[in-house]
Write a structure and sequence with these properties.
- By secondary structure, the protein is an alpha/beta fold.
- It has 2 domains: about 5-175, Spore Coat Polysaccharide Biosynthesis Protein SpsA, Chain A (Alpha-Beta Complex); about 175-235, no CATH class.
- It contains 7 helices and 13 strands.
- The strands form 3 sheets. A 6-stranded mixed sheet has the order 3-2-1-4-9-6.
- Strand 10 and strand 11 (about 145-150) form a beta hairpin.
- Helix 5 (about 175-190) packs parallel to helix 7 and helix 6 packs antiparallel against helix 7.
- The longest helix has 18 residues, at about 195-215.
């Protein structure tokens, strides 16, 4: 396979960063880490896996990841979050790739604590993560950033043209539902949506029905109900903050 750079942005991720970097080191020729002011053991742990650690004030998710992308020295790059862990099966699959496409999508398995959330629209949650540096970039969104690929002279967020890898990575995003709700409240504050009470109510109802009933979140019992309510509240707050 071609040489690969894996890049990560982080702040105060001592809980999971060792597992993230340990697995990344099995695949990457270099690991780029951009830290925005960790005050825990994140940097001490990270130094065991890479020397390419850069400190930079927080710019927002999109701009911070573009900064990390610019530091990569290889044409093929992979973006992972500090709370994501590459599985051995995914690593083996990438090593066996023919790399004939310009980018590849990767599925994510969301965990709340130790519980895998399969239903409710959380899996497979494909994200474009493995791509050619010269053809990709992140949009400048403050939150919920995504990769744009250069197509016919313009950057596009379309995903239909890019193959999906079979094996997922593990996303250990939140230790509990309370932590998730607090994060989603912050995301809503950063969404930049124009206030609109009618849209807020419509989005609340649609989000709950979609997550709990249409996407079968109800199969997770109480957890599925809480998740649907958290997403519904987030959808409401985006238009009322």
């Amino acid at each position: 396979m071609p040489k690969l750079s894996i890049f990560i942005i982080c702040k105060n991720e001592e809980r999971i960063i060792a597992r993230c970097l340990e697995q990344a080191s099995k695949l990457a020729d270099e690991i780029i880490l951009i830290d925005s002011g960790s005050t825990d053991l994140t940097l001490a742990i990270a130094k065991q896996y890479t020397e390419k650690i850069y400190l930079n004030e927080w710019l927002g998710y999109g701009k911070q990841k573009n900064l990390a992308l610019a530091k990569c020295s290889n044409e093929w790059v992979m973006s992972i979050d500090a709370d994501e862990v590459l599985t051995d099966d995914l690593i083996d699959e990438i090593k066996a790739l023919d790399f004939v496409a310009n980018s590849y999508q990767v599925a994510r398995k969301l965990f709340i604590g130790d519980k895998f959330i399969r239903h409710g629209g959380y899996y497979p949650d494909y994200q474009l993560r493995l791509f050619k540096k010269s053809l990709g970039r992140f949009c400048d969104s403050e939150v919920h950033e995504s990769v744009e690929m250069l197509e016919t002279g313009e950057y596009s967020k379309k995903r239909s043209n890019y193959p999906k890898l079979k094996n997922p990575l593990n996303h250990y995003s939140y230790q509990n539902l309370k932590e998730m709700e607090e994060s989603f409240t912050k995301f809503a504050m950063l969404s930049g949506k124009q206030k609109n009470l009618a849209l807020a109510l419509i989005n609340y109802l649609y989000s709950f029905v979609n997550k709990y009933f249409l996407r079968l979140g109800l199969l997770h019992g109480y957890t599925g109900l809480r998740l649907a309510l958290i997403h519904a509240r987030y959808s409401y707050l985006k238009y009322c903050s």
